[in-house]
Write a structure and sequence with these properties.
About 0% of the residues lie in helices and about 30% in strands. It has a 5-stranded antiparallel β-sheet, with no helix packed on it. A hairpin with an 8-residue loop joins strand 2 and strand 3. It is an all-beta fold. It has one domain. The structure holds calcium ion (3 copies). One calcium ion (CA) binds next to loops. One calcium ion binds next to loops. GO terms for molecular function: calcium ion binding. InterPro entries: TSP_type-3_rpt (IPR028974). This is Membrane-bound lytic murein transglycosylase B.
């Protein structure tokens, strides 16, 4: 059974990717850190755990205290920009 893609709430709609890291060295990013509300602080974290180029886990830190408050499967409706 396939669930429809869940859209996760973020602090803002103006996503800026602060970091896109290629941790396995295949030339494609697999970890993304983004700021969605323009304050320069990271609040959206995404991971491509199976390295197919698509996000598998999305974490949102709504209060920017460094601990993700929401974790969803997939890109949460927020595909990476880089
Ligand atoms: Ca932010
Ligand atoms: Ca993936
Ligand atoms: Ca938090």
């Amino acid at each position: 059974m396939t669930e429809p893609q869940e859209t996760v709430e973020t602090r803002g709609d103006d996503r800026v990717d602060l970091l896109a890291a290629d941790t396995d060295g295949d030339g494609r990013p697999d970890v993304w850190v983004a700021d969605t509300d323009g304050d320069g602080k990271a609040d959206l974290f995404q991971f491509d755990t199976d390295h197919d180029g698509k996000v598998d886990i999305t974490m949102v830190d709504l209060d920017e205290d460094g601990t993700p408050d929401t974790v969803v499967d997939g890109d949460g409706g927020h595909p990476p920009t880089v």
